[in-house]
Structures are given as C-alpha cells and as structure tokens.
Amino acid sequence: MDAIRQYLPVIIPLAVIELGLMIAALIHIFTHKHYRFGNRILWVIIAVVITTIGPILYFVIGRGENDND
After folding, report:
1. Per-residue confidence in pLDDT tens, the chain, 69 aa
2. Does 4 fall in a domain?
3. Would you list the DSSP string of the chain?
4. Which of 18, 20, 29, 65 sits a CA distance of 20 to 30 A from 11?
5. At what angle are helices 40-49 and 2-31 packed, to 10 degrees?
6. Taking Cα atoms as reference points, which of 40, 18, 42 lies closest to residue 30?
7. Is residue 55 part of a domain?
8. Inter-residue contact 69 to 33 (CB < 8 Å)
9. Count of structural domains, the chain
C-alpha cells in the first residue's frame, strides 16, 4: 500500500490530464460533422479505447479543416 501512495502524486495529475483530453476530444467529436479521416463512431472508439494517444490522434489527424460548423 505504501508503494501506491508513493506514486499517487504522479498518477493523479496524469489521470486528470488524460480524462480532460478525452472529454475535450469527445465534445469536439460530437459537435462537429467533418473529419479528415474516418467517421464519428471511429473517432469515439479511438478516443475512448486508446486513452492517452487516441484524443491526441484525433486533434492531430482526425479533426476537419473547417471547424466553423
């Protein structure tokens, strides 16, 4: 139990950042219609299943050019 407490100051901020990225990606996915690659269902699955890298991938390669929907 002491080993877990030792790493909590590192784990908690990383988990909050990961959750924030996922929520931001999901909000953007559900509020926009156009994607450079794939469709809405694909990006939701990627953002949720591939927890840290999925939202980053969405913002780098999946988000559409025209965000003025």
Report:
1. 788 889 899 999 999 999 999 999 999 999 988 888 888 999 899 999 987 888 888 888 887 766 554
2. no
3. -HHHHHHHHHHHHHHHHHHHHHHHHHHHHHH---BSSS-HHHHHHHHHHSTTHHHHHIIIIIB-S----
4. 29
5. 170
6. 40
7. yes
8. yes
9. 1
